[in-house]
């Protein structure tokens, strides 16, 4: 997936454990692990905001885009309107 989650980087910078972050954000450690390991299909803005507040960072510090090596991946192809 071209979206990379860098929660572990911010945890290391803040010298914080996954359990502590989960408690402060209000999510389970298991759900935080799913997000941290890049297996999440979605993240709520309220969760992203809470992560940013607790870690004192911006959303871009936690999420970044990297192109797939094989091309567009799951990206749909837009139809070109005829004129």
TrEMBL record:
Pfam annotation, one family: HTH_26
Domain of life: Bacteria
Source species: Aeromicrobium alkaliterrae
Transmembrane segments: none
SMART domains: HTH_XRE (SM00530)
InterPro entries in the cross-refs: Cro/C1-type_HTH (IPR001387), Lambda_DNA-bd_dom_sf (IPR010982)
Listed name of the protein: Helix-turn-helix transcriptional regulator
PROSITE patterns hit by this protein: HTH_CROC1 (PS50943)
The HTH cro/C1-type domain, residue ranges: 13-62
């Amino acid at each position: 997936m071209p979206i990379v989650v860098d929660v572990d980087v911010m945890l290391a910078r803040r010298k914080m454990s996954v359990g502590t972050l989960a408690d402060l954000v209000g999510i389970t450690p298991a759900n935080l692990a799913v997000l941290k390991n890049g297996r999440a299909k979605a993240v709520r803005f309220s969760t992203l905001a809470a992560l940013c507040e607790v870690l004192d960072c911006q959303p871009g510090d936690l999420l970044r885009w990297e192109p797939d090596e094989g091309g567009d991946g799951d990206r749909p192809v837009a139809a070109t309107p005829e004129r």
